[in-house]
């Protein structure tokens, strides 16, 4: 397995920071202690406007070297040159970051970001939402919707993937992550979207104990 030389910190829920050789990336911040880089350019990604993925507080961060890449469902001043707004299925280059978006099975989008030669995928709320109380038809629709989005990523290299393993789905919490790992084969997979139910990560690791990821 390739050594990536990227420092990753889990802030809370679906928020992570990644520090590479030249850049500092933040995904889906809404709460917790966080400190922007003073020496590297900061890039703040927001997959959608749900309150557990976004807070307007990010625009109050005092830093000259910060840019924002946001889903179009978030209302912002689009004349601000530090803000980039994206829809699903788009491509954008911000400085030397190459950004591709995919859809979601909820609000907003998901990101595939190429930075310093590494490809980072953050799913946002792109999940296989298999709720026990849904009808079989609804469950099948959610399965198809999730697989259709993930299938768009097939053939692409993903070094690090952040994908929901939501414990509210009970025994179905692992479906999205399992499918992503089996179909995309990321170098590293980091579970997210479990709030303070940190044991969910261990449960998922146990489920996937035979995986090479």
Structural key phrases:
six-stranded mixed sheet, globular, alpha/beta, 213 residues, 16% helix, Metallo-beta-lactamase, Chain A
Structure write-up:
The strands form two sheets. The chain has a six-stranded mixed beta sheet, with no helix packed on it. It has one domain (7-207): Ribonuclease Z/Hydroxyacylglutathione hydrolase-like (Metallo-beta-lactamase, Chain A, 4-Layer Sandwich). It is globular, with a radius of gyration of 17 Å. With 213 residues, it is an alpha/beta fold. The chain contains three helices and twelve strands, in the order ββββββββββαβαβα. α1 (136-151) runs parallel beside α2. A hairpin with a 2-residue loop joins β9 (110-115) and β10.
What's the structural blueprint in terms of helices and strands?
Elements: E1 7-12, E2 15-19, E3 23-27, E4 41-46, E5 66-71, E6 83-86, E7 91-94, E8 97-102, E9 110-115, E10 118-122, H1 136-151, E11 160-164, H2 175-184, E12 188-192, H3 199-207
Parallel strand pairs: 3-4, 4-5, 5-6, 10-11, 11-12
Antiparallel strand pairs: 1-2, 2-3, 7-8, 8-9, 9-10
Helix pairs in contact: 1-2
